[in-house]
Write a structure and sequence with these properties.
The protein is built from six helices and no strands. The chain is an all-alpha fold and 158 residues long. The chain has one domain. Helix 2 runs antiparallel to helix 3, helix 2 runs antiparallel to helix 5 and helix 3 runs antiparallel to helix 4.
Length: 158
Amino acid sequence: MSKLNRLWSSQKIRYLVIGGYNTLFGYGCFALLWWLFGQQLHYIVLLTISHILSVINAYLGYRLFVFQRKGKWLKEFFKFNLVYLGTFAINLVALPFLIEEFKLHALIAQALIIVITVLASYVIHNKMTFKKQPNTKQKIPASKKRKKTKKRNKRRKK
């Protein structure tokens, strides 16, 4: 078990595991939507729906397991979405290009695009979204400061 714990302690290994899961989840969403609605809806609509589901899933996995962040999440979620909007934009251009110009099946084209965007997203998330903040002293409410000061003064008097 200690080897497994040491492996899991590596952020890059956690990213590979969770990223692999997220990739399968996202691709699975697209494939399932394609299978269910591919004849009725354009592949860009299916891509958009699967993107929204995948981003929420990915954010939770990266936040909780890979980068292990706690606390305020709204600003971080906004930055996370910016990264994924970038990968979505790449996808919006690349998917029609691969389908229309190279005549690839939508599922094969999407698989190729995922390989590129997964690698880019790790670098960007590590440097921007989940960037470790410098150690700064947490703000302590004035009431707690007074209590700590009183306790410290009592210990000094003894």
